[in-house]
Design brief:
alpha/beta, 320 residues, three-stranded antiparallel beta sheet, six-stranded parallel beta sheet, binds 1,4-dihydronicotinamide adenine dinucleotide, 14 strands, globular
Length: 320
């Protein structure tokens, strides 16, 4: 059993370490173009194995994709993060080329892999990986909703002075300011959130969640890694252990929610085949309008990707 994490930077290394500590595979490959970084970090992590009590063998690899052969799950975190003042969409030019190259390298040696994209701008990089991989859409998807949901739960837990583990929520839409938190689908151990918190406080929390990535970029000068790395590892766990957990995941839509030909955050069942099923919620008119607004934003960025002309195939259009 093998898992590969591409990108040994902040998010990739954090995700890899979570995977190793949970012993989700016998072998874990960490691949990056920076030789010292990937060899050093994988050695450093492996040297914690006797302290942390795990057996997962972590190996650092530079650009030799043959060393990733036979991976069951691959997490793609390679690419540049944003800096203060930038939007995620500003990363598209550089990151699209990186995602295309690494996806092709991965699929060549692991044609059965499930691919989890983390690189930003997330929804459109998932689309780019899907185009490059030429795999069925249940096998190529992106991580954002678990992270956005985790931020939402952390803020709610603080406001209500309760454990974040008692909060259950689903967020939909693109991984950007147009994301769609859904108060109607947010509960505290089954109790509707609206019974426990004032509307004005909830509104502020939703707004802070939408801008949660940017808040951290302003604080640190680069983007977050602990929560993103842990969230991606939680998806790996669901697949490797065939847990069939329900998570918001950036998935290809083919008619669900009245949307076609784009990748965007929706609730799915995640198991050994990747996306086992996209769950269609019974959204009301306001919620559906927010989701469609977010989908139009994603389509706009898809168009920028198409304009780069790095893929022969495309299905972007600015209408839904
Ligand atoms: N989906 C999400 O919710 C989140 C996405 N991100 C995104 O994840 C990406 C990575 O962020 P960080 O880890 O903080 O950046 P980082 O700069 O710390 O690490 C990125 C790594 O990618 C490597 N890399 C670049 N080109 C490569 C290639 N062709 N092959 C292999 N490795 C290559 C770099 O050498 C670097 O080590 C960014 O695009 C960031 O915006 C970050 C947080 C959350
Ligand atoms: O904000 C960023 O650039 C990184 C990211 O996607 C997040 O932390 O949500």
């Amino acid at each position: 059993m093998k898992i590969t994490v591409v990108g040994a930077g902040n998010v990739g290394a954090t995700c890899a370490y979570e995977i190793a500590r949970k012993e989700l595979a016998r072998d874990l490959v960490l691949l990056d173009v920076k030789e010292g970084l990937t060899l050093g970090k994988s050695l450093d992590m492996w040297q914690t194995s006797s302290v942390q009590g795990f057996n997962t063998r972590i190996t650092g690899v530079t650009t030799d994709f043959s060393k990733t052969a036979g991976s069951e799950v691959v997490v793609i975190t390679s690419g540049i993060p944003r800096r203060p003042g930038m939007s995620r969409d500003d990363l598209i030019d550089i990151n699209a080329r990186i995602v295309k190259d690494v996806t092709e390298g991965i699929v060549k040696y692991s044609p059965d892999a499930k691919i989890i994209v983390v690189t930003n701008p997330l929804d459109v990089m998932t689309y780019a990986a899907f185009l490059a991989a030429k795999l069925p859409s249940n096998k190529v998807f992106g991580m954002a909703g678990i992270l956005d949901g985790a931020r939402y739960k952390a803020f709610l837990a603080e406001a209500l002075h309760i454990s974040p583990q008692s909060i259950h929520a689903i967020l939909m839409g693109g991984h950007g300011d147009s994301m769609v938190p859904l108060p109607r689908y947010t509960t505290v151990s089954g109790i509707p959130i609206t019974e426990l918190i004032e509307d004005s406080v909830l509104e502020k929390i939703i707004e802070r969640t939408r801008k949660g990535g940017g808040e951290l970029v302003e604080l640190m000068g680069t983007s977050a890694w602990y929560a993103p790395g842990a969230a991606a590892a939680q998806m790996v766990e669901a697949i490797m252990l065939d847990q069939r957990r329900v998570f918001p995941v950036c998935a290809a839509l083919n008619g669900e929610y009245g949307l076609n030909d784009l990748h965007i955050g929706v609730p799915v069942i995640l198991g050994k085949n990747g996306i086992e099923k996209v769950i269609e919620l019974n959204l009301n008119d306001d919620e559906m309008a927010l989701l469609h607004k977010s989908a139009l934003e994603v389509k706009k960025i898809m168009k920028s990707l198409d304009n780069l002309n790095i893929f022969e195939e495309r299905y972007g259009s600015d209408t839904l």
